[in-house]
Queue: 2 jobs
Job 1
Amino acid sequence: MARLADYFLVVSYDLDKRVEGEGQGRILQRFPEKDWEDSPFPQGIELFCQPSGWQLVPERQPASFFVAVLTDINSERHYCACFTFWEGLDRSQLQKAEASEADEADEAPAVVQSAQVFSPKSLVLVSRLDYTEVFRNCLGLIYTVHVDGLSAPLETVIGNLLTCVIPIAGGSQRTITLGAGDRQVIQTPIDDSLPVSGSSVAQLFRQLGIVNVLYLFCAALTEHKILFLSSSYQRLTDACRGLLAIMFPLKYSFTYIPILPGKLLEVLSTPTPFIIGVNSFFRSETQELLDVIIADLDGGTVTIPECVHISLLPEPLLQQTQTVLSMVLDPELEVADHAFPPPSTQPSALKIQDKEIRGVFLWLFARLFQGYRWCLHIIRIHPEPVIRFHKAAFLGQRALSEDDFLMKVLDGMAFAAFVSERGPPYRATDLFDDLVANQVERIRQEEACPHKVMNHIKELAEQLFKNENPYPAVAMHKVQRPSENGQTSAQKQSQFPMLDDVAVQLFIDHAAAKLKTAPPVVKAELKAMVPSGPPLGDIVDRNGSVMANSARRLEVVRNCITYIFENKMLEAKKLMPAVLRALKGRAARICLTQELNQHVLQNRAVLDDQQFDYIVRMMNCTLQDCSHMDEHGIAAALLPLVTAFCRKLGAGITQFAYSCVQEHMVWTTMQFWESMFYSDVQNHIRALYLETEDGEPQTNSEQQDGSATGREISALELASEQNRLWPTLSKEMQAERVQKEESTVFSQAIHYANRMSYLLLPLDTSKNRLLRSSGLGDVESVSNSYVTNSIAGSMAESYDTESGFEDAESSDVANSVVRFINRFVDKVCNESGVTNEHLKALHTMIPDIVQMHIETLDAVHRESKRLPPIQKPKLLRPTLLPGEELVMDAMRVHLIPDGREEATGLMGGPPLLPAEGAIFLTTYRLIFRGTPTDPLVGEQVVTRSFPIASLTKEKRISVTIPMDQFVQEGLQLRSCTFQLIKIAFDEEVASDLAEVFRKHMHKLRYPQHVHGTFAFTVGQSGKLVVEHKTKDKNQSLKTLSKNLVKTAKRTIGRQYVTRKKYSPPTWENRSSFQSELDEDEISVSEEVDQSSLTLSSTIRSSDRQTMSNVVERACCRDYQRLGLGTLSNSLTRSKNEPFRISTVNRMYTVCRSYPGLLIVPQSIPDTTIQRICRCYRQNRFPVVCWRNSRTKAVLLRSAGLHAKGVVGFFKSPNAPSAVPSQADSTSLEQEKYLQAIISSMPSYSESSGRNTLSGFTSTHMSTSGKWGSIRGSGRLSAYNPDVGTRLAGKESPQLNGGPSEALFLRQQKAYLYIIGDKAQLKGGKQDSFQQWEVVPIEVCDVRQVKNSFKKLMKACVPSSGTSDPNMSFLRCLEDSEWMALLHRVLQVSVLVVELLDTGSSVMVSLEDGWDVTTQVVSLVQLLSDPYYRTFDGFRLLVEKEWLSFGHRFSHRGAQTLGSQSSGFTPVFLQFLDCVHQIHLQFPMEFEFSQYYLKFLAYHYVSNRFRTFLLDSDYERIELGVLYEEKGERKSPQVCKSVWDYIDRLNKKTPIFYNYMFAPEDEEVLRPYTFISNLKVWDFYTEETLSEGPSYDWELRGRQERVAEETAEKPDSSGPKSQRHVVWPCYDSLSKVVPDAITKLLQDLQSLEAELGQTSEKWKDTWDKIKTTQRTETKLESKPSFSSSLLMSSNLSHQRRSQGVYLQESSVGSSINLALECEASATSTPVAGRPSTSTLYSQFQSTESENRSFEGILFKKGALLKPWKPRWFVLDKTKHQLRYYETRQDKECKGVIELADVESVIPGTPAMGAPKNIEDKAFFDLKTTKRVYNFCAQDSLNAQLWMDSVQSCLSDA
């Protein structure tokens, strides 16, 4: 029973305490005056009566009523019903008040001035029951009695009110009367635990809507701050009540203030969660709250701040809840679209709807918490139950361990209270207990069908409604309201009277006495056992979330374990990788623990070393995927096993499995140990009571037979039974049971102290491995126990007294373990009620336990070190290049798979990765060699390597190796040769060694100076590379001092240069190294003269050959071929040529980054050039680099203009200018320069200035050209005049990406197009009289290329696999925009080709003239001139445009320390990719193959050759790299130039040759450039794991040799199959499956080798076949159209018969290579007889060569080349004169066919001939093609040669 009202108060406005217009309230009277013992009087009520503040108002307001809620210190809620009415104040009272106030305030408040003022007065009723309506009626009655002056005295009414007593619950109803002719019925709820909500929940949903309320619901459960706003107080109270009602069965336990007074608003900034209501009046003050969710009831909005993240219900629950709620609140929604909607679909009445909504939330909680009772651990039954909730197991079984919402709810205070309230197994039950236990099955079956759910919810709603209104029929309320006249007369009416407190007190005392004498009302509480419902496991399994195909996996796990225990180790080893993969699944892990359990006998299982090893491995793998929560209980199941499995190490020394599985987070998690401890304690206590049934064990079996299911009794059921019996036991029995339980817990605590020391103390206790990241240092362990707070004090004390202040350095393993265990023991013992004596005993034991364990471990550690190490695969040595040396020897590592899936076996094929092996760092490469860890592919060798110079990114990673389960430190190394090596260091590699490895790698990747790169250090000792110090040790002092002087001079020069206005900007960029050439003739003077910075200072003066060297450079050879200026010996110019070769830059003074010789217009003198160059960036002024042989249009290249020069350049020349400034004069000279170029074009001179359409169409129509498709070739290919816009990104509407057709519709066309950068050309206006036109294009920035390349690498070689569709290969490729950049470059190039082909010259003038310009110019030449599509031509093109014209290879490739920051920008790679695209579209036009391009792409970054080092010819000369004489080579096997290497290789193997090469004459290519026509270059994606990159040929040969040697061992196994499995990404396809021609050539070679003949070079064979082929076709009478492209010389008439076949012939045993043909070129054919020339090639004597006469002759080279000594051989048999470089040389340099020789005559000495040789020694050999000039050692020798040749001729 409880009092209806505890206190009654009258509160009024306090006139005495007004502070500046802020009124206050005061309590006039309070009944009873004394506090009740059971409920103290709440303080501060007067604030709550007027939450917006006490104020006087000028006119009377209507009476108001609301209920505020206050919470006292014991968290009991008090309901304060406030009834407020307004009373008039007369002047006199006010005057008094003002007088007293006037002293303080200067002027009276304005309100007071009106005639009458009203002050508020409140009648307040304080109660612990929440009967809003009853309170409203009671207070209204009291007011009515006062206003209407009813006969009943107020004291009686109030006395009755305060003495009214009603039952709390039980569904009774009471009629009460207050003695004023009134009567009310109070119905009490049936079940006290269910909240009473009236219609507040339904109201809340109406005000805010479904989604908003769900947000608030989730926010309240996950402990966020919630603030309600409304202008009505009662609504605030209702909303808060409604929100609490839907949280049932959880109870809100934080701050709860439905109505917060304005004066207490600072409460809102409290850090704890709350639910608070505030009047909208204070809205502005709530604006700055950052983390509060604000629900505005009047506006229907919920505002969630940005920083707040609300976890929502897990799907599909959220969706289903929303659906059902909308069916309750808006039933019409479902049928809104029906053609014949049912007549009435009104929602239920508000009160019913309210219960339906609550039904939905009950149903929701039943689903959320189903099976929670199976996760309760009961750890004490007597004297009262102690229960813990096993959160991890609950989440694991629900498969929701990742779910944010559930995690937060389970960690919350509300759930902790839920467990302590509903945990006990023997108590009164309610609706929720029934629902969560007995209706789970029904809920699960219906959840998919909303209508069935709806029915269920209606049933629940009915129960809830019944609970609140047990007697719905009875509602006889009779309460008087104040009459109308009463309210009006109240104006004149007197004040609310002071009541007689004595009278009221008498009433109260009287009632109290009565109560004492009345018999106590005992309503027996119905306690019962709480049902548990079905266990969770079944639920989840039936949902089918167990993995599919797991049966097969479990089979594998079982078999493997069986093999291990039967000692079939080989079988086990084969299964191991599959088992480790299977153990990723939960089912397999559980299976493993069960299987292992079966092999344990009496807690022990002794294994041998290998068995132990495998078992530990599997345990580690199982534990590795356990989270620290261990939600599936796997670690818990393994815990007993790790202390069972062991191996004998020596006499009396045993190593247990636990010492090998300590590396897991789970062991350092306090929560894990707690839940393990509690579950063990529960099992022991259950056992205790199963035995104690009066010592009659048979009761157990009887019970089992009796129970329907026959299952074991759960601990909770036992506990409930024991709790029921408890009151019936005697005191002794009770004490005995308590003591037994306590000692059970105590013994478990000791057991666990041991267990924890096992798993926490490392095998090697000297190492401090314990306090890894997890740190046993963190004291807080979060669990669902709220006892911790109270015991925190004692706990801290207990282990501080143990350890003093050792916390500061927890380095000592033993101490930290002791502390961790102490903390654990304190916590669990306090929670499970262990006595203090026992606790102290434990604290003294723990250090001893730990110490003992450490001693045993030391012995184990000692012995385990003596074990023979596990056999690891032996390390394979890599084959090294000549001159390549190891910097760091083998470090054992694992190669981890990256994002490429081919090698991992995921896409079919064997899993080659992960592999186990070693990493080697050499001076040139980084090499991994090893074998796959999967034993089924174990005999393969995996190699991955890349040149160290191509390393672009290195980052540390930590890797978990699936085989060993240890987290290893690793490295991820990315190379720009599209390779990624992801390695994890083996545990045997010390971490400092890994660090040394990284340092060395960096040193090699970024040497101080280009001298440190492999191309220079090759062949020196590896030591030099690592320690630069030793390099200079034998330098003499002289050179050292000279270097110092040099540096000084150079710095002086530099200071000067920076001051001077026009200076070559590259001077500052020069690397500041010292060239070790010789004397430097700069004289140190104050003012350094410009000329003293010339090349003469760096080229040695003695080198008289320098000039002829410069002349021999690639550029010159090419200029002569193009007829762009001849260079006679005296370097004079011949006037009739339009262009000349200028030597103005021979000392590299005009432009550092240009070559020494440049082509400029004949009419421009050198002085002009020196001035013009200043207008261009880096001084790179326009020079001619190619001329179209047909139209004579020229191609020029330059850098973009300096910003200064732009405007001046495009100013019209006749602009008035008073004084011609310097800028003007240079721009005039520039115009002259361009004019000179234009005048050089024949088309310009012919058409006398201006070209019209008619003049040019003819040449245009005849242009020969070939588009990338047959379609384009017949079409008039013309070009769009508005090229600029098209290239700026608006595509032409052409289908094939070829140019569109409108160029000649325009009447005039410029002679010179300048392709310029759009950004630079702003402000230049086009002049209509000039003959050039500027085409602005958008050019790709170097930064763009750099970023694009990074993305391309990540796309082609991702570092880790991903299932994200946005990260797929094609998506990443598109994001990289690499293809778009290629498209842009190709598009510009095709445009330029087109313009040149129509007779206009083009000047490419972009950026600094060394990146995009170079790309465009090279591509244009490649497309326009077939010569550049041959080996020699392409080499020349690269040497000329890329090397001589100063593309900054070192800078762009970040080859040295200085350029490291600029990063890697593959401009040259982009060019090669463009060539590859063109090659794909025109496969017959190129002499070289795709492999040749890949080879260059690889080696231009590899630094193996010197070709692509340094930034310009100037730097190469300065270093002495440019003109290395061939004879100077230190080691002949080391090639310094990539071109020499390719030449040599090309002689040996056809790998670089394109068999489809069949060029058409003067062919201009126009490839398609649209992105859809471009293909991804396979260079980016292919990989050969068998041998690493195939671009270092020496290695290929060696590896094959090694393979052959090993293969020669006798093989006893039966017949071998001829078939060979070819794996993608492992084998090199070109090698394993060569194309047909290569195969034939190889067979031919091997056959020749077998027969001991010297094999012919493949090229000779090939050429022969080709020539016979051609002659054959010519002689054939009728044309045969064959579609084969092979070897086509003339596409229309060919007969393709592959003439290589072997036939018996008369020449001894030699096999004859005959070419089947009807005729031959040399003689009239005799049917069936081979021609004579083939006879020669057949005839090969056993001696390799027939040498009739041989010796040294000097031979004069071609134009401008020096005389060179060569070894000549006269061969009578073959009728040839051959020459070699030296006598030993096997490769012939050239052949003069004697058949072509016309005469041999004595010659005259020519310029440049060897000195001191008599004139008679010269003779000339005249052939049909040319004249050879020879010079013998002396005249005698010369005579001999002439005679020998003559006799050969006469013999023939």
Note: The mean pLDDT is 75.
Job 2
Amino acid sequence: MAGAGAALLPLVLQLGSLALAPGPNGGRHVNSPGGPRPRASWMVLTCYPHPHPTMLGDPCRVSGSGESLAWIVSPFPNFPAGLPPPASMSLQLSPKLAHDHVSFPGSGRTADEGGTHPREPSGPAGTHEYQQPAPVQSSAHAGAPREQWRPLEERLGRLEAEVAELSEQNKDLQARVRQLESCACHPAPPHCWGLGGAWPEGARWEPDACTACVCQEGVARCGPKPGLPQCQGCSHDGRAYGNGETFSPDACTTCHCLEGAMTCTLKPCPRGPCPEPGACCPHCQPGCEYEGHLYEEGADFPSSSNPCLQCSCLRGRVHCVPMKCPPSPCPEPVPRPGHCCPTCQGCTEGGSHWEHGQEWTPPGDPCQICRCLEGHIQCHQRECASLCPYPARPLPGTCCPVCDGCFLGGREYRSGEPVGSGDPCSLCRCANGSVQCEPLPCPPVPCRHPGRPPGQCCPVCDGCEYQGHQYRSQETFRLQASDRCVRCSCQAGEVSCEEQECPVAPCTPTASGSQLCSACVLDGEEFAEGVQWEPDGQPCTACSCQGGVPTCRALLCPPAPCQYPAQLPGACCPSCESCNYHGRVYANGQNFTDGDHPCQACHCQDGTVRCSSVDCPPTTCARPQSGPGQCCPRCPDCILEKQTFVDGESFSHPRDPCQECQCQEGHAHCQPRACPRAPCTHPRPGSCCQNDCNGCAFGGKEYPNGADFPHPSDPCRLCHCLSGNVQCLARRCPPLPCPEPVLQPGECCPQCPSRTALAGCPQPGDAPPAGHQEHFSPPGDPCRRCLCLDGAVSCQRLPCPPAHCAHPRQGSCCPSCDGCLYLGKEFANGERFPSPSALCHVCLCWEGSVSCQPRTCAPVQCPFPVRGDCCPSCDGCEYLGESYLSSQEFLDPREPCHLCTCLGGFVTCGRHPCEPLGCSHPLTPPGHCCPACQGCLYHGVAAATGETFPDPLEPTCSLCTCQDGSVRCQKKPCPPALCPHPSPGPCFCPVCRSCLSGGREHQDGEEFEGPAGSCERCRCQAGQVSCVQLQCSPLPCALQVSEPGSCCPHCRGCRAHGEEYAEGSRWVPPDSPCSSCVCHEGVITCASIQCVSSCAQPRQGPSDCCPQCLDCEHEGRKYEPGESFQPAADPCEVCICELQPKGPPSLRCHRRQCPVLVGCPPSQLLPPGPQHCCPTCAQALSNCTEGLLGSELAPPDPCYMCQCQDLTWLCIHHDCPKLSCPPSERHTPPGSCCPECQECVVEAGGQRVATGESWRDPSNACIICTCRPGHVECNLEECQPLTCPDGWTQVRETGSCCPRCQGAAQSCVHQGREVTSGELWAVDACTSCSCVAGTVRCQSQRCPPLSCSPDEAPALSPGSCCPRCLPRPASCMAFGDPHYRTFDGRLLHFQGSCSYVLAKDCRGGDFSVHVTNDDRGRSGVAWTQEVTVLLGEAAVRLLQGGAVTVNGHSVALPFLKEPLLYVELRGRTVILHAQPGLQVLWDGQSQVQVSVPGSYRGQTCGLCGNFNGFAQDDLRGPQGLLLPTEAAFGNSWQVPEGPGPGPPCSAGLEVDPCRAAGYRARREANARCGVLKSAPFSRCHAVVPPEPFFAACVYDLCACGPGSSADACLCDALEAYASHCRQAGATPAWRGPTLCTMGCPLDRGFVFDECGPPCPRTCFNQHVPLGELAAHCVRPCIPSCQCPAGLVEHETHCIPPEACPPVLLTRDQPPSARPSPSREPPGAS
């Protein structure tokens, strides 16, 4: 505490032997410390805040406090209160002196005891407050109430008496005080405190070698010394570090500051493959690496190299055991590649057979899907998409619930029907599978915090609702607002609050006299020193008590693994057990309506919220209204007499039950109830109608039933009232006893003149007596009628008419229909009341009759409402037949180990929480929910404590032991192996069943080769290997060589074609008599014999290879047979004299053949010596070994090619063709053997022909010649036998080889045009036709049967007729305003009007499909305008109306660019086939479908998604990141539209055209799109859910607007759904005369087919069987115009097959021409 209040602090200051204690008026006492008391009188040292009005000059300054105080010392007994003494002194006190505590002498108590003022907690906080400078107020003491000081003055009075007794002992002290009074007071110079010492003003010092400090104005200012680089510090993340300081910014980095530079290094990680786990260093997860794959610890997996091995990963090692095949359920299982056990091809059950991979739905159970897998039938429940929170039950024969109604509380509701609710303050209706509730309107109230009494819907000012709590009027309550205490009161709906000050709890000092508290006080609660606790109501806060000061901090929570975690009451951190969505908490599994977006029906599941749009029911009023927080427009309610009535409701007027009212469009229209006709003539008015016949209304007056009354106008007539009818008759005069009666004036009957009046009749009570002949009713009994006759009274009971109502009430005399008497209780006319007999019924009393009907219940907003007295309510839960209170916890009846909680009609169940255990493999005992450590559960094996069992992972090799819930396994010990070479056996134990030698395992008794080079033969016997030396067999040859690595030598000769040839031998191969072969060092060289002429007249016979010279004579010398010589100087030429079979010997001369030196490097090649012909090699030639058998080798001579055969290199010489060009034009290319020419010279005429050109021989047209490089090759064309019809002749045209048949007609007619004879054209990819002598001859290609596996489908390559098998494709579609259904089945809505990537091969770049959208004049929406397909260098554009361009040029269809693409027109659909298996279908308007084979799985990107089987991650942009919205995803795939600047386009936005179009448009769109859910599409609903397409259809119709365009948009959406149905195998018949009809030319015989064959039967393929025609036509069926059964299509007409023109059909012939532009398909116009 600072300022003026500082003088009031109960602090004791000590100075030397003096003590300052509180004195009166804020002064200080000066006394001596404890111990022996000196003999001196007590004095008072009074300190006043500066400035004091009685102070002269400057006061003293207490160092370190910053507060000026005046210290006055005077004798205590004579010191007048409030006045300063005459003398003063100067004191300098250190801050420490302000905290020393000294007791008063003789009192035994401290200065704190007995005071009434609480002191501030001492310690650091108190010290800080005292030392800090603070503003000073001089009037603090003067203004203090004297009553506060009265206890202190009384205490000081007692102390003063004690001091008086000790005055003699204080004389020395009094003398010292007098000495102090003579001291002068002067300002003390400022000092600086720090580093354990005090420094005077201006002093300088150095706390370390790099820092210099100076004291200026009492403040120590320190800084770094200049000019010392070694003292420069560093800064990192806003923190300063000194020179040489080492610090760690995080757990993995160590930094060092040196001369201003900071160097950081990562902490070293331990070496090895698996370092220890840590926060910095990577650590290895336990597992195994096997055959290039990683497996987790404990994983079981099959071996990828041997499918018959089952392996497991255990403790980093892989153990594999052979797999046992189970018995096959089928008689003939077949093996499958990659599988160990044979499998069944199909499944058979109950007489039905299914193929492998086939799926079906069992009859009678539409919710099951069965599939045949390898002979086994696997069935699973069909998964139904939850599209609405309360869907109606499935339709008969279907599985999934539908959203066209609601099923709630065990009852079905139609859409729009009111739904019962437990909240009487809301009105709920069923709306397409969801429940929409709206609160009843309430009138405004004149208060700010109105309360809501129980049972009432609207707030009133009789109470208050404040911060979620209800309070009664005049009630007072408290609020705990952080650290403040607030007291509030409720007054007629208004809340007023005021803050209250709380007293500070005192702190009791310890016995040692320390001023530090031994406890902390927080929120009025005391905590011991060092204790940690959690404050009440603050579960996320942790507090601790240190030094008497409570310190609280917030706990940090880890991120929750869900999107909308919620913090449960009493929990610290949010969890995924419920959802916190837009500030509201929803239970797990709860369905709710988004408060910010009421048109969104949401579902909370494990912390994640999924919302879907709500479909609104139609309204019946002209101007429906939408209130705040309300989704669907509804007709306004009516408020009458402060009561609310729903639109359309009929009710009685609250104040006038005789009026019947009806609420229409917010106005109550009331009119009098229709009154039934009364059964009497003069009824009395009832409560509502004039139909009370229990009395009469006559002459403006009312009379009770049975009353007699005079006629209102004729007094001589008497009227009688009986049951509402009035009868008036003339009065009957009684007979008179007098002869002459007298008629008095004004009387009706005469009277005797002088007779005394007849006596009257007295009545009981105060009633006047009745006169003679007077009718009256007795008092209290109006139902009797009496007559007075001359004093005598006669009475009778009045008759009652029958009541014309069922429940009349008892009137005054008779039953009356002006009310009801029902079960003993009376009710007013028009009154509604609960039925006394039937529960939950409401009755109405009307005109004496009671009608009762069941009470209407409002819908409840919870899935498990409890049954109330009449209506279900959310005050509790009814779950599985049992009722529970709200907030009650109970065990799940289905799962005893699950704990459920009922909260407001919602039931949330979760597994019963179990305490963490200290064992690794606990066992759950029977009948318990939580595991315990009294046993073990290890990989499915349960064991008791102490039990030993085989390891389930290695049952034969390892034993496990259970000990207190933990399992420890160890390998069984292996018996010793008694053989020197054991092999690994079971459990990797060494066994002697086989032998291990050279790293290979050999079975017992097996013989094998010894180690390489050992020349040994070994044998395995009982685990031991015995080897013997091999004996080499003798060789018949002299030249023997040993190959490296072989044991025995072999002959160095040659072997070819199974024959042995000696080294150096020559021979003629049998298949080439004019060739010669030679054997040289294991190499056979064969070449054609090169002849040399050695005589003037050589002769050559038919079988001679070279010309021969007779008589073996050369240059005059005659040679004998067998002699040879060189005819010239060339040593390679040789002549041999040979004997002839007939005649004399002859001389044959040729060039000597040189062997090929295989494997001789050029550096080792030796040229031939003198008189030698062939070069030699300085090293051994290459050997033809077993490893080289079949391989080829190109020697240095390019004219040879060598092949390794029979351990011999066989080298064959290439024969060069004879060239036709002059020798001067010949040249041999480098590396070639034979010379070539640029042109060929044709002998006939010396023509020159370029290389590659072909021609027919002028003399023989059947010879076709071709110029090869320098030589001519000619072939003879063969003609097939030709038989011509009668009247036809064979003709051979000029330049052709084969004749043809020619008739009278020379041309043919095809499709209405004349085709010249010999012209070729293609009907389709499988059929080509030609015109031959006036007859159309067609050739049709037959396709072989195609059998694809279950995961494959047939596909067509461009230009080919027959399909091939490709991985099963997936399809993506863009339709409508565009909606995109991805390859993985997700439906997206994106309305950008630019160009975008629809589908693309993002890995190989094989194809890319782009779409360009157009807004068609409507902002915010778009349709597909054109499609661009990019294939290599080809760009195909599919335009509006079916036009097609390729690389910018228009093309006619069909179009083929082999082998890249093929484009055709089927009906009105353009189909593009591309080489990689891509297929694109374009309807020419706005719908495009892309199909890609399964080989592209996971490789595609674009608006069609990534084709990985998961629809959840389809919103990936080009960078691979998931984007938050569909608009952002679509815009990310935008591409430029062309090379130049295109028209402006707009990016896609998140738009809702139905909101802009208004409620009427949405209602109409819902109604028109309802055909998707109707009977025409019923067969499709089971295979393709209609809800996504219904939503897309409504979207499109809202965007298209009214008019004819809406019809086109509707047909687009319906056709898109029908297309998906056709792909799924269901073809709906949905078109009608007025619904999306397609016109066909009926005059040409065509009819419309919803799923027409894409390859219709024509005159050209009518001979092809239907099954075969459909097999190779792998196109989807399309809606088109087709010929009816029995007719074929020909030239855009449907005709009988017998009317086809004469066509000669042949089979098994490939088409001889490519497709040419064909005719427009029928019906295209």
Note: Residues 1417 and 1600 are 10 Å apart (CA to CA).
